[in-house]
Amino acid sequence: MDIRDIAKHAKVSIATVSRTINHVSTVDPDLAKRVWKAIDELGYYPNTQARTLVSGKSRIFGLVIPDITNPFFPGIVQAFEEIAIQYDYEILLTSTGNDQHRMEKAIRRMIERQVDGVAIMTFGMEEELLEHLHFRKMPLVFIDVGPPLPLVSNIRIQYQIGVRQAVQHLASHHHRRIAFVSGPPELKSATARTLAFQNAMAEKGLEVPDGMIVSGHHTVEGGLAAFEQLAARTERPTAVMCSNDVSAIGVMRKAYELGIQVPDDLSVIGFDDIHLAEFVIPPLTSIRMSQTELARLAFHALLADVERTSLPPAGTEYFLTTELVLRKSTAPVRKPAAEPSKTHPF
């Protein structure tokens, strides 16, 4: 079966069927309804490869994430796919496992499939791969790291807003010894979150002593090891902020193992506000970076560049804000117990 059968069944021209399937906006709505009805009645499935050859568009977007096991990224995938379905797009998904060779193979596969654009949600990108993709005039969207070039969109995360709210919240609860569990130093996003923490502490006139910023590598295991190191200090922190929620969960677990109660003895704040954050015990206070909004911005950035007739020479920027979400993992500093008063017999 091909579009000639559909045209005969719907009593329209072959050109009308082709334009309807390819979502050309000038098709008469009544004729389009007849075409879609015929497609449904005959059980016709368009040949996507043939459609790509005719239209020059595959209606596929590539989506690259670094780690499918990190709970932050499945939320992005789900939201991105839901939006893609609404616009009659498919997604070609790959998880690189933070491996450069795997990323190269994934990008090659996307080029072979002639995707219309690629959303790279990895918080980092190798220059050689960027040049390779941009050479093919393919729309690209990055988080923070894209260069100012045509067909390149950047989603700028406003880390400072949520981090400042978190530091102010802890300071209002009289916390002064506040530690920070950072992410991998090679990630620009992790460095940005650490810098936002340092700036927010300086704004409040709070010192960050040497050794109070420890890398947790954005993993549970990293959070465990980081807090073990912090807990061994002579003056243990009364609060810990983390570069992501996964490492914050590791901090909370290690605190439990050491007999340190959250939030009575230790306040903990994460970053990302993953779905799991509200179900750990106690529920985790976190800085929200909406996965749904991030996916929405990424998809529409690609779609806008696909449909543009003229391209901004320095690409396009979009902004995503962050905000503090209060739960039960933070509390005021516990005051030290007063020494019992001495009594004197008469």
From TrEMBL:
Keywords: DNA-binding, Transcription, Transcription regulation. It comes from the Bacteria. GO terms for molecular function: DNA-binding transcription factor activity; transcription cis-regulatory region binding. Transmembrane segments: none annotated. Pfam families: LacI, Peripla_BP_3. SUPFAM superfamilies: lambda repressor-like DNA-binding domains, Periplasmic binding protein-like I. Residues 1-55 form the HTH lacI-type domain. InterPro entries: HTH_LacI, LacI/GalR-like_sensor, Lambda_DNA-bd_dom_sf, Peripla_BP_I. SMART domains: HTH_LACI. This is LacI family transcriptional regulator.
